[in-house]
Structures are given as C-alpha cells and as structure tokens.
Amino acid sequence: MVKLTGLNKIKTAVFISGSGSNLKNLIKFSKMKNSPLSIDLIFSNTSKAKGLRFSSQFNIKKYISSFKDSNASEAKILNLLKKENIRFICLAGFMKILSKSFIKKFSGKIVNIHPSLLPKYKGLDTHIKAIQNKDAVAGCTVHFVTAKLDSGKIILQKEVKISKKDTHTSLAKKVLKQEHKLYPAAIKKIFN
C-alpha cells in the first residue's frame, strides 16, 4: 500500500449549492494525515451558496457558474478542472444534474452523497417521503455518479431510525449527522 503524504493526495473538487456542511466536513477530513484527498477547488452553481465562505476560510479556490447555459458552464468547468489538475469530484448538496458527456469525462471519479437509502427515494424530498410512507428507517448513501439520477454503484450506506416524533426537519438533521461520518468513510473505502 502506498503511503499518502500531502504531496500525493488526490486533487479534488467539491460541487455545492447550499450551506456546505458536507463540504466543511470533507475539508476537515482532507487535512487529516490518512486522508487520500486534498480539496483544491469549490464549485457552486449559485453565488448565494453559504458554503462558498469556506473558500476564503480554508484558502481554497472557488468558481461559480449559474448553469443558465449548462453546456457552456460545463465546458468552462471542465477546462478549469483540467487546468487545476483535478482528479476526483465530490458532489455535496449540488442541485444541478450533470450531463452524460460531463460524467463520461470523469467516469468513476465522481461521487455523491444522497439523503436516503438508495435505491429508495431518488431525487428530492427524501425525508418527507420516508415519513409519509411510515418507514421505520431512513438514512444516507454515498454512490458513484452515473448519467441516471441517483443510480450509480453504492459505496456505503448508513441507516437512521425514524422515531414517531420525527418531522422531515428533525429527520434531516439526524441524517445529516450520519452523512458527515459516512462521506469520509466512503472515500477511504474507495482509495484503500
């Protein structure tokens, strides 16, 4: 097994659209000695993403593109990823769907964290669906990204018990706590 040092960590971009709690968690994980990643770029499809603040806080380059013209946005992003020598992409609450051709260029090198136990509840409103269906458990999944929404190979999953008192908001908080543990564990699994 190759010993990883700061010099040969895999240059990674994290794509976000929101608060960036998984991004912050991944940045902290990347600073650990045994982490296979270094976070070198933060990309967002909106300048309103609160997670962009971690760019200046941790001195990481950021790039914003609105995706109004997704082909043009993706072309710019691909050029930037190439220029920055990015080898791996983590989606962390990124609310845009990447095209087949973009995914193909990074095939097997894009992962996502999803707030359900896939294949259950692909897409949005996962916690509402879990509660409405009176599920006993919810959870989160880290999976490889393919052209089909939330359908790539599952890397790791974590179950979260749903209590009778849970609302979709309280369940979301419980699941997010587990996401913060699961994402780094899944990345270690990929690279070990």
What's the structural blueprint in terms of helices and strands?
Blueprint: E1 10-16, H1 21-30, E2 37-44, H2 53-57, E3 61-64, H3 70-83, E4 88-91, H4 100-105, E5 110-114, H5 126-132, E6 137-144, E7 154-161, H6 168-191
Parallel strand pairs: 1-2, 1-4, 2-3, 4-5
Antiparallel strand pairs: 5-6, 6-7
Helix pairs in contact: 1-6, 5-6
Rg, Cα atoms, Å: 16 Å
Architecture of the largest domain, CATH level 2? 3-Layer(aba) Sandwich
Report the end-to-end length measured between terminal Cα atoms. 8 Å
Average pLDDT score: 94
> Under the CATH scheme, which class of the largest domain?
Alpha Beta
Q: Supply the number of helical segments.
A: 6
Biggest beta sheet attributes? 7 strands, mixed
How are the strands of the largest sheet arranged?
3-2-1-4-5-6-7
Strand content: 15-25%
Helix-strand pattern:
EHEHEHEHEHEEH
Give the helix proportion (percent range): 25-40%
User: What is the count of distinct domains?
Assistant: 2
What is the number of beta strands?
7
Poorly predicted runs are 1-6
SS content category: alpha/beta
Shape: globular
Q: What's the CATH topology label of the largest domain?
A: Rossmann fold
CATH homologous superfamily label of the largest domain:
Formyl transferase, N-terminal domain
